[in-house]
Write a structure and sequence with these properties.
By secondary structure, this protein is α/β, with parallel strands linked by helices. It has helices spanning 46-62, 84-92, 112-125, 142-149, 154-159, 161-173, 192-195, 215-224, 239-249, 273-291, 301-306, 311-321, 329-343, 357-370; strands at 32-36, 67-70, 99-106, 130-135, 208-212, 228-230, 261-269, 325-327, 347-351. Helix 1 runs parallel beside helix 14 (357-370), helix 10 (273-291) crosses helix 12 (311-321) and helix 13 packs across helix 14.
């Protein structure tokens, strides 16, 4: 049984599960992956943050992490990932095997043809290892979203997400039906090159993932038979309901014959338990400022220690950090094991937020060592 995501009988002709299902390594309960926000700490530059991303990508590739995703955010001084496709192209030049992708591209911010062209280009750069994860949130505040979309009707983008997704899929597969206004338009690089005289085209096409923090994308991913990525790291209370909804809604498709769900997990391992608490408190202060309309660079642990939290801010920090798995490598391993068991996630995508790039790099190394991942 297959599912037609566009509603007129045409199906993705790719291989089921190709590039989607990860491989568990070492003693990890499920495949481990990385979500990178390209965080910029106080006293650091975006150049520093991007160099750290390259180092983390190289390390995690060597240690057997499965994929490395970059998230689209805008107008946030502490997050230098406004252009995922550009960053992924840079990472592709410094890696050889690890899957690279968006976690995600916020589709309502962009014309579907542009995304098809960008990720077709990435696929040409790194054949067979590019993922296209899509979200329907703006990844920023309303004013910035309006500037990105050149419109003040922000709800329109989210409401039209299924239609935008269908259009993007058509561009990626180059299969608009006869008579469609876009039937003579082709995303290049893409399948049209294989049908041109003398043309040869890669057999791969970036698999589509839907991202979400509630039930909307969970249900849509299930109905379309697509893999699903849930933002547990900032919506933990919705994780199990959303995963249940995804699995209950799932219909086999040309992409997948059974559900496949990963969850984003905030986790930070350090050599010392107290240091982990210092680091995550600084990252939480950054979230306090973001949620109260004061986005900035990620503060140092020393700044967080000196900061006078209000009672409401302390409550927010405590709640936020209750969903951050942190401590020594063994403590983080225990927390990840428990989370995998409790949610039944097929893959854990770890985001390690800290002021220092060195701390983030060390965290991924410690987690790899805790699970006896290859490449030590």
């Amino acid at each position: 049984m297959t599912v037609d995501p566009t509603g007129d009988g045409n199906l993705d002709d790719g291989i089921r599960g190709e590039g989607i299902r990860g491989e568990r390594r070492g003693a990890a309960p499920v495949p481990l992956s990385v979500l990178d926000l390209v965080t910029v700490g106080a006293g650091r530059t975006a150049t520093d943050a991007l160099r750290t991303s390259v180092e983390i990508a190289k390390l995690t590739e060597a240690r057997g992490y499965h994929r490395y995703w970059v998230a689209e955010h805008h107008s946030m001084p502490g997050v230098a990932s406004s252009s995922p496709a550009v960053i992924l192209a840079h990472l592709a030049a410094h890696t050889e095997r690890i899957r690279l992708g968006s976690g995600g591209v916020m589709l309502p911010n962009h014309a579907p043809l542009v995304i098809a062209e960008q990720f077709g280009t990435l696929e040409a750069m790194a054949p067979g290892r590019v993922d296209l994860g899509l979200g329907r949130a703006p990844g920023t505040d309303g004013a910035t979203a309006a500037a990105l979309r050149r419109t003040e009707r922000l709800n329109e983008g989210a409401d039209d997400f299924p239609q935008q997704l269908a259009e993007l899929t058509r561009f990626l597969d180059d299969d608009f039906p006869d008579g469609h206004p876009y039937g003579r338009i082709h995303a290049v690089p893409g399948p049209i090159q294989a049908t041109s005289p003398g043309g040869v085209q890669s057999p791969h096409r970036p698999p589509l993932w839907l991202l979400g923090s509630s039930g909307f994308s969970a249900r849509l991913a299930g109905v379309l038979g697509l893999p699903f990525a849930f933002a547990h790291h900032f919506s933990a209370q919705n994780t199990i309901p959303a995963l249940d909804l995804y699995r209950e809604s799932f219909k086999p498709s040309a992409a997948l014959d059974a559900p496949y769900a990963l969850i984003g997990v905030s986790a930070l391992a350090t050599d010392d338990e107290n240091e982990a608490r210092r680091q995550v408190r600084a990252a939480a202060l950054n979230m306090v400022r973001l949620r109260t309309g004061r986005p900035g660079l990620v503060p140092t642990p020393e700044e967080a220690e000196a900061y006078a939290f209000s009672e409401m801010e302390r409550e927010f920090v405590d709640n936020w950090n209750s969903n951050v798995i942190h401590g020594t490598a063994d403590q983080v391993r225990t927390g990840l094991d428990d989370l995998a068991k409790r949610t039944g996630a097929d893959e854990l995508m770890i985001t390690g937020n800290a002021h220092s790039g060195e701390v983030r790099l060390r965290s991924y190394e410690l987690i790899a060592e805790a699970y006896h991942l290859p490449g030590a």
